[in-house]
Amino acid sequence: MKRTILAIISAVTGIAFASGQDNDKAQDPEAATLRTQSIDEVLQSISINNPELQSLVKDTEAAQLQLKTENMLEDPTVEYSSFYSPNVTGQSGSELVVSQGFDFPTIYAAKHRQNKFSSESLNSGLEAERRRILLDAKTLCLDIIMYRQLGELLGLQADIAEDMLGLYEKRYSTGDATALELNKIKMEMMNVATKVADNNAALATAGNSLSAMNGNAGISFDADFYPLVEEISDPQAAIEEYMSGSASILAAESAASAAQKQVSLNRQDWIPKFEIGYRRNTAIREAENGFIVGGSIPIFSNHRKVRMAKAQSASAVNQLAMIKSQSLAQARSFISDIRETKAALEAYDEPLMRETLDLLRQAVEGGQISVIEYFVEATNIYSSLSDCITLQNRWQKLMAQLYINRL
User: Fold this and answer.
1) β-sheet bridge partners, residue 290
2) pTM for this structure?
3) Which of 194, 334, 358, 389 is surrounded by the most beta carbons within 10 Å?
4) Extents of the domains making up the chain
5) 249-253: long-range pairs with CB below 8 Å, 24+
């Protein structure tokens, strides 16, 4: 029940945290560990090393290449025929046909414009995913800061309880304290030890998750304080920034434009496809050369394509309207939650609570109050300080969500 117990618990969980962050570095000696107190540096590293983001980049690249291949000329065809006759020894004749099919030139221009919007939609979708991943990483960083602040508070609580244990052991030996008071202090130390272990475990888990997001490259985020964040002076401007910079909205807008271009493209599908080529026929004594000009009339293949494209375009427009509506609701919700959380934070007076803890400690040491009375009051103060730390973390997360477009 001494300081040694808490030290061992803290050391073991601390080792687990450090081991989780450095385990992959040990497996790969060349991997350099990033040690920083800057969230921006962490996010920059994750934007480079995150496996999910790397996969999304390649998927987007493949999809854009697929768009380009869909707007290219058809492959040329080459046919060769050999003819035989019972009256002729060997080959009596042959035929060579080389042809190239293509769409009307306006079709390629329309597809190019549609592919441009589709490519922009893919890029915006990738940007939305990138911001989501970085927001998750920033949330982990904010949680790590919170766990360290809670750890500092628990450490203070443990130190005070240990000092009081030493004091009351002396009083108990002289008959100035009861066994109940002594046991109350020991139970308090057990509770604090459990909270320390849980907090350190959560800290280790957050650190391991952050390293995993960094592609298992070593990363050690050592900050124990939050970065400065500007207050919201104009809520409407903040909402407009959230809406205008939303990558999800931009992706939906480009997708709607691409769907509208598909309607225009399908309306041109009545234009026949063309084919030109070269033809050579040979006989026993002579050869003939000529050209091939032909086409295919889309009588059946264009059936109801325009109606289908219009339905898809209407769906894309409705999807855009839904995303805009949801984004606006989210922005307003963030603003409201930020206001409420800020108001709750301002109700806490942390210096006053810490001063009260010191006064309570002096009172119990001076015999003015019993140790049981001390713990009743101190427990409420520790709970309030913990709530204050949690609220600060919530406020930081809400601000990060509101300004996600800045990531």
Assistant:
1) 279
2) 0.84
3) 334
4) 3-406
5) 249/320, 249/323, 249/324, 249/327, 250/120, 250/124, 250/127, 251/121, 251/122, 251/124, 251/125, 251/127, 251/128, 252/121, 252/316, 252/319, 252/320, 252/323, 252/324, 253/320
Q: Which of 159, 248, 249, 141 is nearest to 203 (CA)?
A: 141
Sequence-distant contacts of 354-358: CB under 8 A, at least 24 apart: 354/385, 356/381, 357/160, 357/381
Nearest to 272 by CA among 102, 115, 72: 102
- The C-alpha atoms of residue 224 and residue 355 are separated, in whole angstroms, by 22
Q: How many residues does the chain have?
A: 407
- Taking domain 3-406, whether its CATH number is 1.20.1600.10 is answered by yes
DSSP structure string for 134-153: HHHHHHHHHHHHHHHHHHHH
Closest CA to 396 of 350, 341, 349: 341
Residue in the block written with tokens 């309607």? 263
pLDDT digits (tens), the chain, 407 positions: 444 444 444 443 444 444 444 444 444 534 578 899 999 999 999 999 999 999 999 999 999 999 988 888 888 889 988 888 777 777 778 888 898 888 888 888 888 899 999 999 999 999 999 999 999 999 999 999 999 999 999 999 999 999 889 988 988 888 888 899 899 999 999 999 999 999 999 999 999 999 999 999 889 999 999 999 988 999 999 999 999 999 999 999 999 999 999 898 888 877 888 888 898 888 767 788 888 888 887 777 777 888 889 999 999 999 999 999 999 999 999 999 999 999 999 999 999 999 999 999 899 888 898 888 998 999 999 999 999 999 999 999 999 999 999 99
C-alpha to C-alpha distance for 389 and 369, rounded to whole angstroms: 28
Joined tokens for residue 9: 């618990």
Reduced to 3 states (helix: H, G, I; strand: E, B; else coil), residue 262 is helix
